[in-house]
Amino acid sequence: MLKSIKSKLFAASIVVSSVVLPTVALAAESSIPQPAQDAITSIGETATGMIDLAWPVIALVVGGFLAIKLFKKVSNKV
Fold first, then answer.
1. CA-to-CA distance for 55 and 40, rounded, in angstroms?
2. What is the DSSP code string of the chain?
3. Average pLDDT for residues 7-34, to the nearest whole number?
4. Furthest-apart CA pair in the chain: how many Å?
């Protein structure tokens, strides 16, 4: 009996929190000042740009390590 009451209370609290939390999140989003939102967006765009610039470097480094490993493997067989 007590377990079923606890489980019903738990289920009810989950339902209430699933309704209340998104509403609170929307209210919090609308209370952020526009300059702060612009700054966060700018930081995100800068980070994306840096990541885009880093991919060719990462590819070259990995390719270099693979070439060195392959060269060592071939030179040891000779």
1. 23
2. -HHHHHHHHHHHHHHHHHHHHHHHHHHHHHTS-HHHHHHHHHHHHHHHHHHHHHHHHHHHHHHHHHHHHHHHHHHHH-
3. 73
4. 79
CA 28 from centroid of its chain's CA atoms: 20
d(CA 68, CA 66): 5
Domain boundaries along the sequence of the chain: 1-31, 34-78
**Count of CB atoms situated within 10 Å of the CB of 54:** 10
Which is higher by pLDDT, 22 or 67?
Answer: 67
pLDDT of 28-73, one tens digit each? 667 899 999 999 999 999 999 999 999 999 999 999 999 999 999 9
